[in-house]
Write a structure and sequence with these properties.
There is one protein chain. The chain has helices spanning 10-26, 32-69, 88-100, 134-147, 233-237, 243-253, 261-274, 280-290, 377-380; strands spanning 104-106, 118-119, 129-130, 158-173, 176-191, 198-201, 212-213, 297-303, 309-316, 322-328, 335-342, 358-370. By secondary structure, it is an alpha+beta fold. α2 (32-69) packs antiparallel against α3 and α6 (243-253) packs across α8. The longest helix has 38 residues, at 32-69. The chain is globular. The relative contact order is 0.16.
Length: 381
Amino acid sequence: MNANTSRQSPAEGEESAQLFTRTARDLPTGRHQFHRERLMAQIHETRQQERQEERQEERQAERQQERTTAGVPGRTRRLRLPRPAITLPVLAAALAGVVVAGVVRTGGDGVRDSGVATGPALTTTVGVATTKGLPQLLGQITLAAAEDDHPVVKPGQYIYIESKSADTFLKTVDDKTSLASHQLHTRQLWESPDGTKGWLIDPAVNDSPEGETLSLPDEQGNTPKAHLGAPSYDYLTKLTTDPDELLAKIYKETEGQGNTPDQQAFTTIGDLLTQSYPPAELYSALFKAAAKIPGVVVVNDAVDAVGRHGVAVARLDETSGQREEWIFDTKTHVFLGERSVQVKRLSGTDALIKPGTVTYTSAILNRAIVDGIKQTPSQAG
């Protein structure tokens, strides 16, 4: 294999950028920003490893040439392992496929799974869903959101979001598939208002405990345009705060995504609530818009990633059988986190994901405005 095989031409770079945009846009189960960051970090990591291997191959070729010149037969060079040979467009497409089912699938072929320790599948008791009290609950949540201290982000500042998350996935080793989970871990994100500067510390993504930059443009010079699936704060400030107009925009811009229009609209709002920092008026408008989506229910007892009990606003995806739950404090109605719970039994390999399996869970620990990248609220104070 030629050392230049993994290098991208300008056309391939453009294809990578297009696939990156489509990957972020087409995620049907939520957490677009999370997977956008994971994709960027994996692309960066792949490039670094490819460069290292290219240098190793060049040195190996030089040594082989020296051995041949000295009359010593050169040894046959081994091909690369499967993971470094993945080109960036394929990596982007593969990641899109990974998250389509909402459950990570890994192989035993040398592909890096995660830097997070694994454990048994995450499970819970499936809570009873009801429409009773939904309007009142959403009204209370909207009121709490309006009263919440929600400072405006100024140029030069950063949005800081600290959370804990875990997920359950199908793991395949030697053609044998089983359920496993990534253990609960802390994730810290910094992002500038325009979305072009950022930093991520997440052991599920970063090899280094120091984290990795998310700043744009990337090495190909690409700066993906902000949209509903991967919004910047500046983008959110320009969205309408009229609930009907906002919901209509969400339906229009997510057309063709997800399993159904209603589920995708619910998922999109959930992503905006959990993975971004909506301005105060928009924050309230999002809850009012969610109230207008058919199939939204209340789950009176739900638990976030760190064990806090609360009440959930939820919706069942009839296709995947997973129920997406937004969890709020029962008394203050402050947003705590979200989780996806398998409610319906599936068939085939997916039958391993039994009802009660928690495929994803997260808890927001801190969301604040800081004056510098990698600065935490405690340091700012």
